[in-house]
Specification:
2 copies of one chain form a homodimer. By secondary structure, chain A is of the alpha/beta class. Chain A has one domain: Amidase signature (AS) enzymes. Helices cover 40% and strands 13% of the residues of chain A. The first copy, chain A, is built from 16 helices and 11 strands. Chain A has helices at residues 11-19, 25-43, 51-67, 109-116, 153-160, 177-183, 217-227, 245-250, 272-285, 301-316, 318-324, 330-341, 344-352, 354-367, 395-399, 429-443; strands at residues 46-49, 78-82, 120-125, 166-171, 186-189, 209-214, 259-261, 289-291, 371-374, 404-411, 417-423. An 11-stranded mixed β-sheet of chain A has the order 1-3-2-4-6-5-10-11-9-7-8, sandwiched between helices. The relative contact order of chain A is 0.14. The A-B interface holds A 239, 311-312, 314-315, 318, 339-349, 352 and B 239, 311-312, 314-315, 318, 339-349, 352.
Chain lengths: 444, 444
């Protein structure tokens, strides 16, 4: 009988086995590489992968373990890194030919944090062009004729295909939660400003978030605990007390959580089978869920997010425009053309409309609800590879910087994964994961 | 022989006498009020003043002193407050008829800090219209046919006229240093982000600074030490260690300071008598000063400041525009019209050009110089009350958020005060005042 590949383990399981001396990082990484060799020709999740370099990192992790020094929580665990996140030892091409072969000067803050925790930086995962909508080569591991979603396409697919237990992505509209849901991952986008973004391609300071892909809530907590923190070079981070994600996740909620189910003004566009699945979910939750109307003021959120994204991306990606705008996709060029014409007056008005909306949702949480339940997308991953699906069910929570997680708890009529998105109160991220675990158990 | 009015004392002198039990706050405030009665009909420094309310505050301060409780460093000292800074107990009209009789909901952060330090909030001083260029009624105490400068016209004039020893103002282009110099005050605009601005009319988050008017360096340090601090409601403040302004000011610099004299591209416009005066100053400093060319990249600073100011003021003052733009001056309306048409692309480019300029000046300080010497204005206060003078010699330092102080060390050919502006390294504000004291002694 063939032994089970270590690539099927979650990061938490693998870390535990390594601590117990039952497996080594090298064995784990070898199994992951084997899995990659087998599935990459179909999935195309990787933009850069140097097997030898990964194995050397694994051996170093094993050596740290054997030497008896205290090792980090991710010692020897392989992590895929979206190719807009700088790595000092691997190219970072940002999904554009204009950055072909680009070697960053240093690790992004999050990569440095992963390395400090002992992780093996496995390689770079495919991103859409500049983390916007033009797809890369990645396919959905559940059905290669379907999109994996984007822009963190390779990260979402690599975790789902069991090529790595963990991967990092980023979200400016819906680029973590949507591909996470399409690929059947656990995916988590913490509160804006919790995870430092220096060394990551900036699309929009206002909207950019780092996100995590994994195959369990434990793993999301494990990584989040390492990545959250103040960094002088990300002006949106703040010094704050350590967030004990893993500890909080293991607690029982003091009371059964109360959920607000929010359909948003875009519910009509949700697929019929998904609507049915959510109806069943609501029924299963009984008196623990109530349908809540979106605050009226939040109805403009989609326009506001677009105004901010267009204006800030046009500015932040101007060096690419100058270097060769004819090398950009029409999609991206169109966005930048619109962004270059946006008035500062409208842009600032958009920025100013955000805090009152945040305050409105704060009330929701302080008054009655532990989390918002809402779809992560219009349904399962759409067929076709020419687009990455619609981020419409992520945009509001990205704009407001609220923590969001998607759990692969259901399936669509086509058998593809259907996620459940939960959105929490800003800066109560660990509690959101705890509530998510309650939901997961409840529906198990 | 008539006794000398207590209104002639600096705040530090008055505070010392009060601590020694030689005078009371009520006596001090009465003398200030007497001085106001005598000079206000010419100077017109005050927008709101309630004598009884001031006296009641003074009595409360005296009562605190007598009771033996620990009192703040400004206990019983009267302070004038520019009328764009909210006071919960007095109207704040922002220099526009559209806010006539406006009662703010609470004290601005700086007013709360002054009260916590025991200060008597004397009244509200005249501001230009919305702290922009359209003059109020104030005249220069040294010659009422000349402008006091603006926009902190009343604060600058009230301190110069010995109506109060201290006053607060604000600077978005040159609204503290310029009127301070025109009126012969000591005036100080600390590093951007050191003094919280919540509760102050926002013109431009990027450019707005709180500033202090006084009649000595000791007094500037005394007030700065109370006002600098983190505030959750001003996103540009940061938690940081206490800045011991008074202690540092009393130290001898370890080495005689080295000054960089910077003429800027606008030197040609400086008045002939002022040019002569600065030439004498340079000569007096001998080998402690060198003329330094402005970094090339800083040559655009004036355009950049205008782009930011126009765009942000158009956005921040939009409620006034909507409420009645025909009630705004043509000057302000023109600014807002331009600001409403500014492209977000140009606005963001302007914002992004600031950090590299700051870095350029950092080098100047780390390599060789303790402070920059430069004029605070084109010369003495111009004749006429229809304009408040040109902020051209303040704009660069406001844009870069560098600390600036003006000292009334010289006189123009017309006998009016001529200031010396010194600009320091960001966040080394106390050291700038210490260097200023060295200069003051050197030239005494």
């Amino acid at each position: 009988m063939q032994r089970t590949s270590l690539a099927t383990l979650t990061a938490s399981e693998a870390a535990q086995k390594m601590r117990g001396g039952l497996v080594t990082s090298e064995e784990l990484v070898q199994d992951c590489l084997e899995r990659i060799r087998a599935t990459e020709p179909i999935v195309h999740a990787w933009q850069f992968l140097d097997e030898e370099h990964a194995i050397r990192q694994a051996r170093a992790a094993d050596e740290r373990h054997r030497s008896g020094v205290a090792v980090g929580a991710l010692n020897g665990i392989p992590v895929g890194i979206k190719d807009i996140i700088d790595t000092g030892d691997m190219p970072t091409e940002n999904g554009t030919v204009l950055h072909k072969g680009r070697m960053p000067p240093a690790d992004a803050a999050v990569v440095a944090k992963l390395r400090a925790a002992g992780a093996v930086i496995m390689g770079k995962t495919v991103t859409t062009e500049c983390a916007y909508f033009n797809p890369g080569k990645t396919r959905n591991p559940h059905n290669p004729e379907h999109t994996p979603g984007g822009s963190s396409s390779g990260s979402a697919a690599a975790v789902a295909a069991q090529m790595v237990p963990l991967a990092l992505g980023s979200q400016t509209a819906g680029s973590v939660i949507r591909p996470g849901a399409f690929c059947g991952d656990y995916a988590f986008k913490p509160t804006h400003g919790l995870i430092p973004r220096n060394g990551v391609l900036t699309l929009s300071r206002t909207l950019d978030h780092i996100g995590i892909f994994a195959r369990s809530l434990d793993d999301l907590a494990l990584v989040a605990e390492e990545l959250v923190g103040y960094d002088d070079n990300d002006p949106d981070t703040r010094p704050r007390a350590h967030m004990p994600f893993c500890e909080v996740l293991d607690e029982e909620p003091p009371l059964a959580p109360m959920f607000a189910f929010i359909k948003t003004p875009h519910w009509d566009r949700v697929d019929a089978d998904a609507k049915e699945a959510y109806a069943e979910l609501i029924e299963a939750l009984g008196d623990r869920v109530e349908e809540v109307d979106l605050l009226l003021s939040a109805g403009d959120a989609w326009d506001i997010q677009r105004t901010i994204m267009e204006a800030e991306m046009a500015s932040n990606l101007a060096p690419l425009w100058d270097a060769g705008k004819d090398k950009l996709s029409e999609r991206l060029r169109g966005l930048m053309e619109r962004g270059r014409e946006t008035r500062a007056f409208d842009y600032q008005r958009a920025l100013k409309s955000v805090p009152p909306m945040i305050a409105g949702f704060e009330e929701l949480f302080t008054e009655r609800y532990d989390a918002i339940l809402t779809p992560p997308a219009l349904g399962t991953a759409p067929k076709g590879l020419g687009a990455t699906g619609d981020p419409v069910f992520c945009v509001l929570w990205t704009l407001l910087g609220m923590p969001a997680v998607t759990l692969p708890l259901m399936r669509g009529a086509n058998g593809l994964p259907l996620g459940v998105q939960m959105v929490g109160r800003r800066n109560f991220d660990a509690r959101l994961l705890r509530t998510a675990r309650w939901l997961e158990k409840k529906l198990a």
